[in-house]
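# nightly structure sweep
# worker-07 picked up a monomer target from the shared queue
# config: single-sequence mode, recycle default, output format = structure tokens
# input follows
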Amino acid sequence: MNLKTMRVNKKNRERGSILAVVSVSMIVLLGLMGLGTDLVAFYLGKSEAQRAADAAALAGAQEFVISGFTSGLVTQATAQTLAKNQAIAVGQKNLVGGTAPSIPSGNVTFDFTHAGNPLITVQVAATLPTYFMQIFGVTSANIAATATAEAYNPAGSAAGGPTLCVSCLRPFLVPNCDPDHLVAKPGGNSVCPTPPGPPGNNQDYFLTPPNYAVKRPGAAPTGIVGESWSLHTGGPKASSPSQWYSIAFLGAQSKSAFQANIASCNTDAIVCGTVLQTLNGNAVGPADKGIEAMIHATGQGLGQGQDTINVAGGTTPFPMFAGSNNPLVKAGIIATGAPVVQSDSLVSVPVYDGAVLTPGGSTVTVVGYLQMFITDVKHSGTDDIINGIVTNVMSCGAGTGGSCATGGNAGAGGGGSGAGGTVTAGGAGFAPIRLVHP
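# output follows
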């Protein structure tokens, strides 16, 4: 064999080896591309699973509030059943990889060891198919995520917890005086007015100082949830069984601003222990007009197109029904009388320490909050009588102070001066819920 022939054969052998190297490299490259594609799909699936777990846990925690469990209205067993069912239903609406995740009943657990702060933990699972990795025999991958949420109650939390910021409050102050429950004057409530009736009694507390624990949790008549109130805005009335006083948010004495804050709520966040300025003088005209706008009533009294609530029978949460002026009825989405889960008649108001107020303006300290369903308003001389039903109560506990920085929210903490950030509540949401894991 001559030299020229040897060189040709060597080149042919080299061409074959290069082809083999390129072929192997392409297989490895395709495998890496397939692995990368599947890893991206798994990462997305993990994110979707976490979102489903978060939503499920928050939905379960919300049931602690709306069922009335945090106000002693239902038992722990009932709250647990309601929260579990809601968590599973909401979690499965959040698809993972295009399909509903698996949330067996045993994947929803509870922790009631923190007084006043019930926790729910939800584990979401899903099986995602692989694509390119099937050539290596891997046909699927299991995805899981866990989240824990709580119904946050400042009265049941340790010092250094998040600052509670309550917004969307109506500009009324409820004194810490329970008109439906009386106590003997010696050793009883010394700051509330003497009610009409037999002498020797006084109104009891809603929230018992100095830690302001809820005095009578649970349903009326033994508890306060479901109590009917006739609330007065015409100034201090020592002989009245109950009264509201008006708030001048940020010290503004404008009656038009007062009316607007009734109709659409005030967005200023109030923390426990806040000192509020009362509104000077009477504002009965703006008050009844604001209430009518808020509840969508075309006039005073019942049957003016506003929503209704039914507290009979003890069904909780109390069922609400759309009036003919409900925005959803006006839009043709639901019919008059249809059940609703939200209503503009459901509002939150601050409870103050009960100190006697004087005409012409006073300052008061916030010690808690009430949620109320406003049924109607009636103008009577220099007074507006606002009829409502207590649907929930929340105490500040012994914790006061802090600031509500922009960015605090019930789901994630965030600003504020409390060591644990801030949580927000108010309006129909009332008591805050928040994720505590992850």
